[in-house]
Design brief:
This protein has 5 helices and 7 strands, in the order ββαββαβαβαβα. It is of the alpha/beta class. It has a 7-stranded mixed β-sheet, sandwiched between helices.
Length: 195
């Protein structure tokens, strides 16, 4: 399957605002500043659809992008060191958790980590929670163009070991700058959709 059409639909601040057309969803999660917006833009062959910023925390709601008029990519607010009020971070977390737990159309989550840093404590907490609610998860390591090929291979092998307890044996390498891993990630997403 190829991505032919893309349309931004809505930014959602509460579950009552979720689209009600019954289309399946795949969510994108990751720490602030991990390259989530760049990854989404790369997958969708767009440069500025998902907002990219050098300051973390720009995505503050659930952003819905309709693909091929068939399903949604849902861009979740980043977690971690975003410079926003604690009350707003709590609100984001509540929205994200309620969405992931209750959306009957959510087929899975693409969890994005930085290839240079690996899974952080916050990433592992999210993975543990997704595993506890049996939510299918694909882990992507972004910014692989910043490392040598041997370093990418070595680090992904190490990171995969730390995730094996969660039945996540593979981390896909990705670079929005070079397109590395784009085809493999799209295949993994379409596999989630078929579940």
């Amino acid at each position: 399957m190829k991505i032919r059409e893309v349309e931004f639909i809505i930014s959602v601040a509460s579950l009552e605002q979720l689209p009600k057309d019954g289309c399946s969803e795949v969510a994108f999660a990751g720490r602030s500043n991990v390259g989530k917006s760049s990854l989404i833009n790369c997958l969708l062959n767009r440069k500025k659809l998902a907002r990219i910023s050098s300051s973390p925390g720009k995505t503050r709601q659930l952003n819905y992008y309709k693909i091929n008029n068939e399903f949604y990519f849902v861009d979740l607010p980043g977690y971690g060191f975003a410079k926003v009020a604690k009350s707003e971070r709590v609100q984001w977390r509540s929205l994200i958790e309620a969405f992931i737990e209750t959306s009957p159309r959510l087929k899975g989550v693409v969890l994005i980590i930085d290839s240079r840093i690996g899974p952080t404590q916050l990433d592992l907490q999210l993975i543990d929670w997704l595993s506890s609610i049996s939510k299918p998860t694909v882990v992507i390591a972004t910014k692989c163009d910043k490392l040598s090929k041997s370093a990418v291979k070595q680090r992904l092998s190490k990171y995969s070991g730390s995730l094996s307890a969660y039945n996540l044996k593979t981390i896909l390498p990705f670079s929005s700058a070079t397109g590395m891993g784009k085809k493999e990630l799209l295949l993994a997403i379409f596999d989630l959709m078929r579940r």
